[in-house]
């Protein structure tokens, strides 16, 4: 579809949900992936249309298209790289009876207010609570409370890890894991699809120095540089499908990740996690997760190799223990019902 999509109101068998999540190699795909997962929950009950600004290409990439269609969503294309052009174009797509979902950290209160004025209901997915949300529902997978957000008294609030949105392969039954004093030998590593700080290569290099016998499966975007790719013990998966990622997590003993959506996907497969952070919005969930025993702590992942290496050594020497258990599948229907009531 293109931006000339017919906006005339028509009789629909299902109400429409218009979801916006921007993504690209330069900004990563985390918001986009979880929005596709939410659309997958909703698509049986709603007509789900996904709109995404790709700041690198100007249009959604083939990878974005595949993620959307595999989740049962239709992409509506808007040819624009800049937010200055894309933001008003998105407003023009909104119909009065739409439920609109915004997922990113850079929508300010005036823009959200304008979106709200054009639709039936506004849903904001956000982990930052540094501005007012004029939304009908605010959702976060972080362990935050309603009191930490500025929002309308009548708005719904949903928060906590168990309310995460997961693609279908992450909702299948977990494998049985028996660790009994074992230490990790097979590592899953992911530092985000964009990885502008080069953390993937940094951690791969440190792991090789600590224990060259480790098997390492790496999730990375197309532009992420990784040394040691010729090593038979290292496998790099670029733009992997949800099924491939879930299968990888099932094979591995330990995940090394930032405190972000990828940790939720790992927990859904019962994979223990050593986590750190490298941007502000990861720090709250990291601190909460360390306090409640969700993660083996790695702290600030941007610190020097000399500071990070002993923390990785400790994580690799610590006997494995079960990942925290969350019933993500049980919340799926609850989330759909929340949308049906908007």
**Average of per-residue pLDDT values:** 93
DSSP helix count? 10
Structural class: alpha/beta
Largest sheet: 7 strands, parallel
Strand arrangement in the largest pleated sheet = 3-2-1-4-5-7-9
Give the uncertain stretches in residue-range form: 1-10
**Computed Rg:** 20 Å
**Terminal Cα span:** 27 Å
Strand tally: 15
What level of helicity do the residues show? 25-40%
Overview of this protein structure:
This protein has helices spanning 30-42, 62-70, 83-93, 109-118, 199-210, 242-251, 261-268, 280-291, 305-317, 328-340, and strands at 16-20, 47-51, 74-75, 99-103, 121-125, 132-133, 137-140, 150-151, 156-159, 186-190, 215-220, 234-238, 254-258, 273-277, 295-300. Helix 1 packs parallel to helix 2 and helix 5 (199-210) packs across helix 9 (305-317). A seven-stranded parallel beta sheet has the order 3-2-1-4-5-7-9, sandwiched between helices. Strand 1 (16-20), helix 1 and strand 2 form a beta-alpha-beta unit. The protein is built from ten helices and 15 strands. It is α/β, with parallel strands linked by helices. Helix content is 32%, strand content 19%. It is globular. Residues 1-10 have low confidence and may be disordered.
Q: Would you summarize the structure shown here?
A:
Residues 1-10 have low confidence and may be disordered.
């Amino acid at each position: 579809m293109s931006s000339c999509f017919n906006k005339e109101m028509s009789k629909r068998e299902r109400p429409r949900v218009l979801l916006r999540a921007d993504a690209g190699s330069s900004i990563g795909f985390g918001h986009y992936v979880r929005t596709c997962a939410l659309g997958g929950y909703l698509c049986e009950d709603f007509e789900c249309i996904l709109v995404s600004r790709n700041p690198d290409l100007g249009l959604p990439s083939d990878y974005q298209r595949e993620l959307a269609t595999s989740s049962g969503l239709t992409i509506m294309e808007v040819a624009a790289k800049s937010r200055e052009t894309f933001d008003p174009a998105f407003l023009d797509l909104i119909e009065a009876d739409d439920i609109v979902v915004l997922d990113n950290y850079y929508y300010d209160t005036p823009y959200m207010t304008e979106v709200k004025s054009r639709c039936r209901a506004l849903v904001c997915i956000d982990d930052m609570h540094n501005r007012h949300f004029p939304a009908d529902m605010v959702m976060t997978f972080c362990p935050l409370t309603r009191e930490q957000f500025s929002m309308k008294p009548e708005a719904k609030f949903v928060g906590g890890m168990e309310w995460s949105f997961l693609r279908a392969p992450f909702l299948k039954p977990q494998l049985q894991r028996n660790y009994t004093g074992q230490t990790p030998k097979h590592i899953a590593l992911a530092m985000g699809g964009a990885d502008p700080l080069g953390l993937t290569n940094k951690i791969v290099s440190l792991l090789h120095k600590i224990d060259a016998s480790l098997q390492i499966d790496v999730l990375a975007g197309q532009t992420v540089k990784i040394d040691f790719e010729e090593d038979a013990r290292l496998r790099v998966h670029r733009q992997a499908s949800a099924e491939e990622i879930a299968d990888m997590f099932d094979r591995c003993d330990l995940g090394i990740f930032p405190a972000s959506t990828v940790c939720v996907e790992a927990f859904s497969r019962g994979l223990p996690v050593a986590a750190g952070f490298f941007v502000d919005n990861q720090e709250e969930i990291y601190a909460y997760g360390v306090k409640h025993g969700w993660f083996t702590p790695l702290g600030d992942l941007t610190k020097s190799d000399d500071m990070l290496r002993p923390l990785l050594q400790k994580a690799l020497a610590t006997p494995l223990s079960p990942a925290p258990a969350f019933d993500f599948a049980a919340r799926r229907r609850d989330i759909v019902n929340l949308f049906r009531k908007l």
